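Design job #97: recover the sequence.
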């Protein structure tokens, strides 16, 4: 399946600096950054790191305040943000779940169009998912895990942090990519519950965002068998990719993008985009994001951000179709 990565259609750094010097829009009151998930996750961390650095670039009185509005795989916070005035003072840190996998898997239950109802501003970053097993698992490689699932079809359940989320659809895509596997999906309410289920041996494996599973792997509570990016991740260089083990060409990453409500004025969009790109260019910001498992995006424009959203939504609709998923219908 052809995939566009976070390297899509970037904006040159000289252009970014020119925008930052003459934004055309200077906020005079706090800006709310809506995170549609609970505090502490990778999306929340990315929002807080970037919000701290974007403020000074937008003007002397600019402040960005993170507001967590969790629920329904990001749909609750996303729907709330899209109904706010399009004035630049309410922004959304959207995710692969809120704006690609859930709309693709459960379109009747998502109250917004993930592209048409928002103004794209910039891609913030992303990262792979990881196939993890309990520390006590007998499976020490993807080949062993796949062989076990084939030998016991339907007997080895797998977990994710929600139906229709990026972990769920990536897992379904993986089952197809290795030639068809039969395994029961068990959804939990959040990544912490998934990792607890793994530790207790309630499930055989899980697909979780690397940023969420990293602490558990570092503490030895679970073991990573493969990452879903084409290249190994620098946080865990010893973990191979699905591409080099059991699924040639496999690539899925989760991501965060900054959006505004539909109709955001062009000067505000340009100023916010410039502030994001300039902040992401700071080595300290990149280091803080990377340590949290979020790979900072290269420079993007509002136009390339929209193209990225369209591409990701199209890709996951293809996964839903190929897996014949009938969720919430």
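Job complete. Output follows.
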């Amino acid at each position: 399946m052809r995939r566009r990565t976070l390297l899509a259609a970037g904006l040159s750094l000289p252009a970014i600096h020119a925008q930052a010097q003459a934004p055309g829009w200077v906020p005079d009151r706090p800006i709310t950054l809506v995170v549609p998930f609970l505090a502490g996750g990778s999306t929340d961390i990315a929002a807080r790191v970037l919000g701290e650095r974007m403020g000074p670039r937008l003007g002397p009185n600019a402040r960005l305040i993170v507001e967590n509005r969790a629920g329904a795989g990001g749909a609750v916070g996303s729907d709330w943000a899209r109904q706010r005035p399009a004035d630049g003072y309410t922004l959304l840190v959207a995710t692969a779940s809120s704006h690609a996998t859930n709309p693709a898997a459960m379109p009747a239950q998502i109250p917004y169009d993930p592209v048409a109802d928002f103004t794209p501003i910039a891609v913030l970053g992303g990262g792979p998912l990881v196939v993890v097993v309990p520390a006590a698992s007998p499976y020490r490689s993807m080949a062993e895990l796949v062989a076990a699932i084939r030998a016991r079809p339907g007997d080895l359940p797998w977990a994710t942090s929600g139906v229709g989320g990026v972990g769920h659809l990536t897992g379904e895509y993986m089952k197809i990519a290795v030639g068809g596997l039969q395994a029961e999906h068990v959804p939990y309410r959040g990544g912490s519950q998934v990792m607890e289920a793994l530790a207790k041996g309630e499930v055989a494996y899980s697909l979780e965002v690397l940023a969420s599973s990293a602490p558990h792997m570092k503490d030895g509570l679970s073991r990573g068998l493969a990452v879903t990016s084409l290249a190994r991740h620098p946080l865990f260089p010893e973990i191979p990719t699905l591409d080099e083990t059991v699924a040639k060409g496999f690539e899925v990453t989760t991501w965060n993008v900054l959006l505004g409500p539909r109709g955001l004025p062009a000067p505000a969009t340009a100023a916010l985009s410039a502030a994001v790109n300039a902040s992401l260019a700071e080595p300290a910001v990149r280091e803080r994001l990377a340590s949290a498992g979020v790979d900072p995006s290269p420079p993007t424009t509002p136009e390339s951000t929209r193209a990225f959203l369209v591409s990701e939504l199209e890709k996951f609709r293809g996964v839903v179709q190929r897996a014949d998923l009938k969720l919430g219908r």
